[in-house]
């Protein structure tokens, strides 16, 4: 996120009381990194290598990721709809990561342009079936990328088209909003309705709320009721001890390990961030606890789930594909927190992400067709760039 979008977000947050303290400053880009060498040099080197890997692995179509898989077992994602959704979602993530990266120069600018053009052509992804609606992931990450593109002022020649696409995506999300107010990507109960009658997932709802905040800040109209219902759903998912249940259906089992601090550690930062962006108060103490759960208390349990091929087979029903997702949202959350929290948690956040680094410059946490390297590298780059802060 560059200076213009940071100013917008800073002004928005400056009017919101967070834990009794008025947030001041101009937003995310003003946070200091609080890293010392040689860790800071490692983070900078990894961010530069990640940027280059993404530039080197862009498809001819302008997108990132594909359905090709080197393994005999895969996540349930039927072709073509679910595969289209994965590719568009991955592309949106990469565009957001590259927009934020200080590396890449003109090659990066060209890759962003091609990526945005890919999104503008392919964003209206249809759900594969009444069971699979991964397309909401594509909508959320595409909205974030388009909103940040508008806020950064890049591709002014496409601004009208980007605004129309953003408005169309908001309208589509209204059609896929679950009856409980959030968004989910599978109708696990088998009710094949439109809008979905199935339960929502807290982290999916959080991701989409972040995307909606981006386009709102860029001046795209979003119905207040759409936001209010999603915020209410997410707030209901908060467990008494602070973590967020997997979704509305799972909050009926508050003692389940998947809903506890360890099982929810990669979800809670995203949920807290999305609520903050929509005017909800999240005390500094709650954010500190969430970051400590992820980076200190249960960090080894999160790492134990890395690259395990079957979802939720690890301790506390943790899945590897939450790992870099959770750390990316933790980096966003950390930059909106107090200097004390940034000083306390930035080094651990850096170490956790660098644990996923590969010799080729990519970073990944879970094998998923051929999407895992670009989406993992994008999440990691978002995190590393945020950790570096304004002093690059």
Task: Give structural notes.
With 392 residues, the chain is mostly helical. The chain has one domain: Glycosyltransferase (Alpha/alpha barrel). The protein has 14 helices and two strands, in the order αββααααααααααααα. A two-stranded antiparallel sheet has the order 1-2. A hairpin with a 2-residue loop joins strand 1 and strand 2. It is globular, with a radius of gyration of 19 Å. The protein starts with a helix and ends with a helix.
List keywords for this structure.
two-stranded antiparallel sheet, Glycosyltransferase, 392 residues, mainly alpha, globular, 14 helices
Summarize the structure.
The chain has 14 helices and 2 strands; from the N terminus they run H-E-E-H-H-H-H-H-H-H-H-H-H-H-H-H. The chain is mostly helical. The longest helix has 20 residues.
């Amino acid at each position: 996120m560059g200076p213009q979008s940071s100013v917008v977000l800073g002004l928005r947050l400056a009017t919101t009381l967070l834990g009794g303290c008025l947030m001041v400053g101009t937003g995310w880009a003003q946070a200091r990194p609080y890293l010392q060498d040689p860790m800071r040099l490692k983070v900078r080197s990894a961010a530069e290598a990640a940027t280059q890997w993404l530039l080197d692995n862009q498809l001819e179509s302008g997108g990132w990721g594909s359905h090709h898989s080197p393994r005999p077992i895969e996540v349930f994602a039927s072709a073509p709809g679910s595969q289209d959704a994965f590719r568009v979602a991955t592309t949106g993530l990469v565009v957001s990561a590259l927009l934020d990266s200080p590396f890449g120069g003109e090659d990066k600018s060209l890759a962003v342009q091609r990526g945005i053009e890919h999104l503008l052509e392919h964003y209206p992804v249809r759900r594969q079936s009444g069971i699979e609606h991964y397309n909401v992931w594509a909508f959320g990450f595409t909205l974030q990328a388009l909103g940040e593109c508008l806020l950064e002022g890049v591709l002014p020649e496409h601004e009208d088209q980007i605004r129309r696409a953003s408005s169309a995506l908001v309208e589509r999300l209204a059609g896929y909003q679950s009856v409980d107010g959030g968004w989910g990507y599978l109708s696990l109960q088998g009710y094949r309705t439109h809008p979905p009658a199935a339960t929502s997932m807290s982290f999916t709802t959080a991701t989409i709320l972040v995307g909606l905040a981006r386009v709102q800040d860029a001046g795209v109209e979003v119905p207040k009721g759409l936001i209010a219902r999603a915020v209410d759903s997410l707030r209901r998912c908060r467990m008494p001890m602070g973590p967020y249940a997997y979704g509305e259906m799972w909050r009926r089992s508050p003692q389940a390990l998947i809903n506890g601090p360890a099982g929810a550690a990669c979800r809670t930062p995203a949920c807290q961030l999305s609520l903050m962006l929509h005017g909800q108060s999240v005390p500094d103490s709650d954010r500190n606890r969430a970051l400590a759960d992820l980076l200190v208390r249960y960090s080894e349990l999160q790492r134990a789930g890395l690259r395990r091929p079957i979802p939720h087979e690890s301790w506390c029903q943790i899945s590897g594909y939450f790992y870099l997702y959770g750390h990316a949202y933790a980096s966003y959350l950390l930059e909106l927190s107090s200097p004390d929290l940034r000083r306390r948690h930035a080094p651990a956040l850096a170490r956790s992400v660098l644990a996923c680094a590969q010799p080729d410059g990519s970073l990944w946490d879970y094998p998923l067709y051929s999407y895992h390297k670009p989406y993992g590298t994008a999440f990691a780059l978002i995190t590393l760039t945020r950790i570096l802060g304004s002093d690059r």
